[in-house]
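Archive entry: two folds, one per protein. Generate the first.
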Amino acid sequence: MEPLENVIEIQNYLPHRKPMLMVDFILELNDHDVRTIFEIKPDNLFVDGTFFTEVGLIENAAQTCSAIVGQSFFMDEFKQVKEDVEVIGFISGIKKITIHRLPEVGNTIRTNAVLVSRFDTAEYSICTIECKTFCNETLILEAEINLFIQEKR
């Protein structure tokens, strides 16, 4: 992966840790958009032969998407990381998905997501997010995903 500047550690926005972490860094994040990067390594759980599988691409997309809503759980009003926050989150539905091709090991994928809708209660958030993943300049995944995220108490 090429050297990057001004990246955000994804671990500040997700409960995932290796080996289930499918995003290396957040390149850009605000309340409505996120861009991430992920290098596909040969020892990844979702590598089959020389390709990153469909499940890996979907998990990368979901983790990218959840950073938009996740920041409200993991960051305080001053954009400082909260300590000891535990959340549970999952894909509650995939409205549509198209996988155009699978990337090979050694490639770096970039995923962009945009918040479509969000519903918050005191206990949980439900959202719909559109997502696109690219390998080099080639579009490899398009999806619209529903996520459910809740803080454990």
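Generate the second and append.
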Amino acid sequence: MATKLKIEKILSIAGQGQYLLVRPIISGQEITLTEKIYLDNIELDQYLDAPRKLKENGELDLDLYSVKLKNDHEVFRLKENTIVDLIPGKQPCLTPWHFADKGLNNQLEKEISRGHILYGKDVTTVARRQDNDDVLFAVFDSDFKYARVHLTWSQSKLAGTDYPTTRTYKDWDDVYENLFIPDNNDWE
């Protein structure tokens, strides 16, 4: 599953890009990189380094890591002193879910009205259910990190704040345990 990290510092290094100093929430927990790796749905380069920093007692701080963003422009979605999920290789979706290549943000914006839990939020499409109109969005500026939305394909805003129906998830583990696994069990 995902590894919880705290963003200690965001660094912009001229000519090299955006780097983050991160620390596992559980001291001593190892961080491994896979071919594709994501920090709260923001792709990282395959880069991991243990920067040299000393603790107050003079010992080397081995829990601090440096990671590089693949797309520097996404740095605005991250904030110092926040907890994020390190998701290795986009853990596979379970049937009937699949990762979506096509962004459905525009359709979501057409349907939600002021007062909806996702109104005005920075979202990106993550996955879609193959047998209905449920879509999983990553949410970047909220206390929950994911939302499952049942799109209606309306071409105008829906009345009220309860539509389209939406359920939120606090992190990737919550999505996996309370969306993917139950939907997969019902599918089979």
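Annotation attached to the second fold: The chain has two domains: 3-88, 97-187. The domain at 3-88 is CATH 2.40.30 (Elongation Factor Tu (Ef-tu); domain 3).
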